[in-house]
Structure formats: structure tokens, C-alpha cells
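Cross-posting from the modeling subforum.

Setting up a comparison between two proteins and wanted a second pair of eyes on the formatting. Protein 1 (sequence, then C-alpha cells):
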Amino acid sequence: MIRSFGYLLAGIFFGFALSRSGASDYNFIHYMFTGENFKLALLMATAIVIGVIGMMILKALGNKDVHGRDIKINRKPLNKYTVIGGILFGIGWAVSGACPGTVLAQIGEGKVLGLVTFLGMLFGTYIYALMAENKPLL
């Protein structure tokens, strides 16, 4: 219960940071994709570098994950579904102005189109799950 509350607080902080940085603003995202303003790309690059450094420190100190196992990040195999998914993700992000993190911030800000994007992501996840399990779509 306490751990879940910590995750909730971390999520609220992350959403607040996304909102305050402008990462949930459609125009800010649009400007990045059109090459007019790279502040968002720099923001993401900074977050990636900090995350990598943080993971390296955690591993070097011998910290474990929440289940007590060694921290290990496995590479995912590159295949046609990864490429297709990446292309669809990029197109969806460019058109909707939202990725999985920012769409939740948009919903929290009361942006109705964020809810439409979220429903589209749920539908896409459902289709992927069906394809990954090799089950018929209907």
C-alpha cells in the first residue's frame, strides 16, 4: 500500500513536470517535429542521459529491483513488428501531439483530445496483443 502511494506520487510529479515543461502542449511537440524548436528534443535527451547515469549508479551500488533481483535491462530483438510499431508510434505522436506519458498529462489538464489519443493507444495495444499472441482479430 505504501509502495503504491509512492508510485502515485512519482506519477503525479512526472505529470506535473511534463505539464510545466510544455511537453504536453501540441504546438511545442509540433515545433519539434517540424524542426522549428528543439527544446523538447533537448529535454528528452537530458532525461535519457540522467536515466542512464542513474541506472549505472544503481547497478554499481548493487541495488536490486522491487523484487530483490539484480537490475538488468535486456535488449529487445529488432524485427519487422518493432519497425512497424516504431513508425506507427512516430506517426501517432506527430499527429496527436502526445506519447504515452504526455497523453496522461493532457487528460489531467482537461484536454479532450488527450482522451481520444488515450483510447487510440488502448486500441493499438489491444491489436498488438492479438497479433503477438497470433490470435484472430475478431
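Protein 2 (same layout):
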Amino acid sequence: MENNKKIYLGSDHAGFNLKEKIKDFLGSLGYEYEDLGPKSYEAGDDYSDYAFLVADSAAKSGGLGILICNSGVGMCIAANKIKGIRAVNAYNVQIAIKSREHNNTNILCLGQDYINWQLAQEIIKAWLETDFSSEEKHHRRVQKIIDQEDKEEINV
């Protein structure tokens, strides 16, 4: 992936420490990022607030997002509620790569309590460096997801 897309970052209290490390890591890789919060540790804050903020920013700008909480699950669920977002909770490098190749994910969610710093770096780097597949079947499938966002009911 080209380094020209801005990466929006967000976490809750449970992911704050990892988010702070990720900022330096992204900078070392040459990526531009914007930290959407929290700016300091805030015990008891709500993951959904930051997930919505990051996902909305990524959807509107065509950028990417990285969200961190305890497990990554809450962030992923919340981010996927925003139109135009395809978020993945990646817990290994293979999932990160497949999510980009097959699903063109634009938000990466991480669980600070379930991955170590070395694995987090490997997942982030793999996710950022993987492009969406050129295979028609993957484009067709993602387009069906995009089309469904505008519908009120499911037609299969």
C-alpha cells in the first residue's frame, strides 16, 4: 500500500499504551497519522466513542484507521456500524493480510491484552503493506457489502 493515505488512531483506556507505541512505529515507517484520542489516559472512557470518531474520519477521507482496546472486539463491532467501514480484529499476520487482500479492510482493530508489541508491529506492517486483490471475485463480494449499506432490507 502506498504511504499516501492518512491513518487515524484511537483507543480507549485499555488500549492507550499500545496506541502510544504505534504512533512512533508509524512515524518510523513514514506514515502520516492523526491521533483522535484519547490524548491522555482516561480510566473508564468508552471504546465506542473513539471507534465512531476514527471510523467516521476514515470513511469520509478515504483513509485508514487503527483502533485499540482490551480485546479489539468492541472497537471492531462499533467501527463496522459506520457506513463505508470494513474493520477487522486481527490477531495474527495472516488474518491482517487476508483482510486486506480479500475484504479491502480500512480499519485495523487490535487487542492490547492479547498480542505483544512484536506481534502488533508485524500485524500493522503486514496490513499496511498489503493491497486489495485484483481478482474480480473479491471486488464483486466487497461491492455487495457496499451496496447493502444503502438498503433497508436484505435481498439475496
